Amino acid sequence: MVIPVQALEPCFEAQAQQWQSRLGLPSPEDLGLILELGAQGLQLRDLGPEAPGPVRVDFVEGAAAHRRQFGGGSGQMIAKAVGIQPGIRPNILDATAGLGRDAFVLATLGCSMTLIERQPVIAALLADGLERALQSLDIQPIIQRMRLVTGNAISLMQHWSEVPPQVIYLDPMFPHRDKSALVKKEMRLFRPLVGDDEDAVLLLESALALASHRVVVKRPRKAPCISGPTPSLVLEGKSSRYDIYPKRSLKTLL
User: Fold this and answer.
1) Cα 57 from Cα 19, distance rounded (Å)
2) pTM: predicted TM-score of the whole model, two decimal places
C-alpha cells in the first residue's frame, strides 16, 4: 500500500516533501489512507466513509501526559512485568514499538529503551512524535532515553551486534476476529498496513535467544500464549495480561 504525504498548510509543503522522499513514496491520487503534515505534526488519516479521526503520536499532551502524571508510577502492572524494582531499571528492547506508548511509560520510569518498528509509516509517526517531544523541556529527558530503529525485529535480534538488552518486550498484533476488537481507531488504520503478526513464534524465539534476563509478552487477557515455552509467570489485568519468561534474576543488576 502506498500512502501520499499532504501538507495541511503551504508552510509545511517542504517538510511534507521531505517525508515523502524519506519514506520513498510516490504521490498517487487517492489510495484510502493519507499522511498529513501540519502544526500538530505528522498524522495518518483514513479517507473512507465513517472513518475515525487522524492518528498521530503526542508524548507531551493528552493521554500520554495524563498517564505520566497519574498512571501509578512503578506500581503499574507493566512496570512489575519488566522487573522494575527499587534500584533496578533494566535496559529494555521494545521489539514491537507501534506508537511507542508502552515504551514511553517505561522510559518515564527511568528505563533506557530501544524501540523497533518494522512498518515504515508507523515508524514515521513515531519518529515525528519523538522529534516534537524533544522540544519540550519537561519531556526531553524522557525522550532522550528512547532510541528508535526502523526494521524487522526478528532479523535485527538475530544479528544483534550490541550488548544484549536485559529485557525484551513484545506486543505482537493479535489476529482478532471479533469486530468489536477494532473499535480503537489505531487498529482500524493500522491493520491494513501491518496485518497480523503471523511470525510471533519466531519473534518470541529470537527474543528468548537474545535477552539476558527476561522476555515479556503483552497479550489480550483471554488470548492463548504464543506457541513455544510456557511462561513462568503471568500478570493479568482487566483486558490484557503479561506473559513473563525469566532467564536470570534482575537482582543481579543491583
Assistant:
1) 16
2) 0.87
